[in-house]
Amino acid sequence: MDINALFTDEGLRAFTATVRDQHVRDAQQYGQIADIVRRRLEQTPIEGDRWMSKKLRAWKVSRQLKAMQKASSDAASKAEALYATYKNEVLELPQRRAAAEAKKLERKQGRQAALGAAVAKSLDKTVTSLSAPAEQALGVVPQARPAEFVTPDNPWNQWPMAAGGERPTSTINDYFAKGEGQ
User: Fold this and answer.
1) How far is CA 56 from CA 32, 65, 122, in A?
2) Long-range contacts made by residues 14-20, C-beta under 8 angstroms, separation at least 24?
3) Residue 80 · residue 16 · CB < 8 Å
4) Strand, coil or helix: 182
5) What is the pLDDT of residues 104-136, one digit of tens each?
6) Which of 34, 36, 56, 70 could share a disulfide with 65, CB 3.0–4.6 Å?
């Protein structure tokens, strides 16, 4: 066996296919032998047997062959797992890393573009707010609220101040209208 061929996709595939097929054949043979041994021992009495001794003895012996069958089946599936793991972890790894790097670079460029757009918008907003219109004189602060929202008389002046106002409040009932029945 050429060890260097084992590290190629075709070489490892051929090796694992050969090993898998051998273990599958072995598992089939072990299963057939286990059935034959169990049937033969169930029909072969030994002097001094009780009523279930033959079946129990046949089960104990055939159980070992069934364990061998299971071990060969597991080895066949492990051969397939070997190839799948090698392909996933060794052969396809460079492509996955390249794709992840490209995706990471794309996300980074997207974030940088979004940041650049946010900075440009902020600068545009600053320049727009700082540049005074032609009808407004320089040095005059523009009014923050339009005049229609500002009422000439303050609504808080109609209520007496709690401390130091026009008239001191004596009770909370001064703020609420008296009920008709009270």
Assistant:
1) 19, 15, 87
2) 16/79, 16/80, 16/82, 16/83, 17/79, 19/75, 19/76, 19/79, 20/76, 20/79, 20/80
3) yes
4) coil
5) 999 999 998 888 888 888 888 888 877 756 565
6) 34
